[in-house]
Amino acid sequence: MLADLADLVLPAPCAGCGTERVPLRYGMCGGCVTLLEALQPFRTAPDPPPPGLPRCVAVGAYQGPLRGALLAYKERGRHRLARPLGMLLATAVAALAPRGRPVTLITVPSTAAAMRERGGDHMARLAGQAVRRLRGAGWDAGVIRPLRALPRPDSASLSVAERRAAAESSLRIRSALIGFPRRATPFGGTLVVVDDIVTTGATLAAVTRRLREADMQVKGAAVLAATQLRRTTRGSFGG
Ligand SMILES: [Zn+2]
């Protein structure tokens, strides 16, 4: 809210490259918009992929204006960037979801603490905008949030396998939804998990395994950005 007002009152810098006092479209300068519009979603996979990681499509590498816009959106409260970023996310979803079949987006959940820090569920906003875009392009699209994320203990001292187990046990299926996908079809069709960034794929894999336990067969994962593979992994829900 305050950030939205600030956007109206003060000329905000470009969210993509930080240039000040330039005309902005979607919160970004013309150069950044052009670069983002030119991105072609691509298949990506960490090496080695964690067990259970579904096919993963990213809009772009985690660099340049994509990185800038994502950081401004997530960490600096520029919530109106949900629209252009959601439109980009839709292009990755479209690469996984055949036309003519309903597609349901499932957001990777944030912990309550992360949502407080960021002023809401940033992935829910992105997914909502992606759904709008997909519907505009002719898809029968919807979004559900069947998972919630519990706080995870610091995982720095854990082994890879222990970290994997901790990631999965911190994800809970909302009890109201248990059994729901089994008997109902409104959310049928293609199930695509959506997240902002993929690094090790651990989070996407844990989410997918959890959903499969609840009989929700995930077709793939769509993310905005893929980081370069790193040897170290972080304990937060950024994996
Ligand atoms: Zn820019």
Automatic annotation (TrEMBL):
The family this protein is said to belong to: Belongs to the ComF/GntX family.
Protein name in UniProt: Phosphoribosyltransferase domain-containing protein
Pfam families in the record: Pribosyltran
Gene3D superfamilies per UniProt: 3.40.50.2020
Domain spans labelled Phosphoribosyltransferase: 183-226
InterPro entries reported in the protein's UniProt record: ComF/GntX_DNA_util-trans, PRTase-like, PRTase_dom
Extent of the signal sequence: none
